[in-house]
């Protein structure tokens, strides 16, 4: 059976209902699982492999994903309210089409190649995560937290970075001509690297070697 056919309907574990409350799903291995329109309230996913799963118009409220694989999941119009991803692989996921004002927390996650475009991510957490080559375009990142994360090759353009926390993050590069910067928190070394990129020379303890 090909992938298109597999994704036409949910497997029995999810086909039994359209709404799940306070359920724990452990050790599932389902490629391209169709979860469109499903509602999950206070549910927990543990060690689940759900690559290329489809979450169109679904709702996750106060849910947690621990050590899960959601690589290239389709999250168009997915509602995210109080959702935590812990130690999970969320690579290549395009969050640009999620429902408005998602409330998300990523901790120790792999988000390489993930994309967020025109998404309000106020107070979102991206902590101690691999954000290499992640795209953030025209997003509101007011009070968001990137502490301890690796932003190597990440692209930030057109973003609002008011009080955004980047201290403790690595490979931070913010172009102030392409982003709205106000009280943005970065390490001195990152500030020196950005200044040097724009032609300034630093002397003293912050100078890069």
Question: Please, could you describe this protein's structure?
Answer:
This protein has 209 residues and is mainly beta. It folds into 2 domains: 19-99, 3 Solenoid (Pectate Lyase C-like), CATH 2.160.20.80; 116-199, Pectate Lyase C-like (3 Solenoid), CATH 2.160.20.80. 9% of the residues lie in helices and 22% in strands. The radius of gyration is 19 Å and the shape is elongated.
Strand content of the residues, in percent? 15-25%
Q: Which series of helices and strands comes N to C?
A: HHEEEEEEEEEEEEEEEH
**How would you name the CATH homologous superfamily of the largest domain?**
E3 ubiquitin-protein ligase SopA
At CATH level 3, the topology of the largest domain is Pectate Lyase C-like
Average pLDDT for all residues: 93
InterPro entries: 5peptide_repeat, Pentapeptide-BTB/POZ_domain
Protein name: Pentapeptide repeat-containing protein
Organism: Archangium gephyra
What's a concise summary of this model?
The chain has 209 residues and is mainly beta. The chain has helices at 3-6, 12-15, 188-197, and strands at residues 19-21, 24-26, 39-41, 44-46, 59-61, 64-66, 79-81, 83-86, 104-107, 115-117, 125-127, 135-137, 155-157, 160-162, 180-182. The protein folds into 2 domains: 19-99, E3 ubiquitin-protein ligase SopA (Pectate Lyase C-like, 3 Solenoid); 116-199, 3 Solenoid (Pectate Lyase C-like), CATH 2.160.20.80.
């Amino acid at each position: 059976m090909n992938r298109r056919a597999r994704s036409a309907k949910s497997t029995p574990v999810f086909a039994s209902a359209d709404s799940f409350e306070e359920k724990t799903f452990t050790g599932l291995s389902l490629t391209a699982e169709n979860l469109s329109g499903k509602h999950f309230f206070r549910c927990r996913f543990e060690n689940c492999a759900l690559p290329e799963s489809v979450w169109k118009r679904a709702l996750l409220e106060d849910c947690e994903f621990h050590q899960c694989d959601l690589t290239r999941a389709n999250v168009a119009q997915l509602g995210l309210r109080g959702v935590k991803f812990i130690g999970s692989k969320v690579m290549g996921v395009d969050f640009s089409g999620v429902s408005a004002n998602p409330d998300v927390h990523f901790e120790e996650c792999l988000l390489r190649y993930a994309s967020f475009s025109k998404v309000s991510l106020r107070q979102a957490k991206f902590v101690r995560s691999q954000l290499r080559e992640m795209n953030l375009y025209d997003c509101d990142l007011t009070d968001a937290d990137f502490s301890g994360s690796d932003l190597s090759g990440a692209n930030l353009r057109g973003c609002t970075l008011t009080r955004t926390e980047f201290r403790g993050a690595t490979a931070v590069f913010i172009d102030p001509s392409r982003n709205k910067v106000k009280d943005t928190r970065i390490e001195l070394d990152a500030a020196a690297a950005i200044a040097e990129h724009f032609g300034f020379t630093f002397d003293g303890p912050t100078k890069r070697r």
